[in-house]
């Protein structure tokens, strides 16, 4: 497995604001990576970024043992949540601008049930708390201290999520940014969103993140919002998002991808059209990254993004677990 890419986003030169919302350039692929992926039904696992490879492995084991899509999705993303080397999810995730790690997570099954937690502190596995919200409460979303109290009442224990390295980086950021403004750029991301299709044809989606680095305290991104960060419908397929959450929320991104598949678009085409919608709603799109991945109920997969640095992991029975570099709206040298 390739190591997780650590993105030195703080040193990136900001890209100038663009007023235009139309880009004609298209298609940018890594010649070493498979350019298209499809499979004849389940099981299939697909997830965002390089850390998706390890998450896929865990999810695949559940499916191979006859487990269902929901269990597989939860099990998969828990690997990423527990990895302190991943600086965008769970323990080791970058804190908000006050130095507090707050986590967002959501889970959804293809039958329509869902649960989420927002701005949750001190809990190692927010995805499992989200699942408890779904299964043990009459609600869909719990936020902040209420979510934390619920987790404790459900038997979760507290963990210090701020690692020494994260704290050191945050202090450096604070010293170098007296204006105290969170960075908005193409590299402030790397949520894990993971989609599963089990042998019975059921779909599930899970999405978990520490959100945008050095965000305002209390900020919630797209990841725990059903329809924005993730969506699953057994009739059609599932989708999840990564990138600048505010932009994804404005377009109801993952719901849009699923609805486009419902209209007959392939997963890749649905993701491409959803990225175009994001671009239309966000004039600053050149400064931000947004990527979608999708899994249709027939097992076909796809993805698309604004900038070419996005990749995702796909696990199928015929081709194993591998990385895919999707096409992007802005070409590599664009
Ligand atoms: N979508 C996430 C958020 O805005 C960030 C990410 O993808 O890492 O919170």
TrEMBL record:
Annotated positions for site Cleavage: 190-191
Record-level Gene Ontology MF annotations: hydrolase activity, acting on carbon-nitrogen (but not peptide) bonds, in linear amides
GO CC aspect terms: cytoplasm
Extent of the signal sequence: 1-27
A Pfam family hit: Asparaginase_2
InterPro entries: Ntn_hydrolases_N, Peptidase_T2, TAT_signal
Record Gene3D superfamilies: (Glycosyl)asparaginase
Residues at the active site: 191
Keyword Signal: yes
Domain of life: Bacteria
Record keywords: Signal
Name recorded for this polypeptide: Glycosylasparaginase
Source organism: Neolewinella litorea
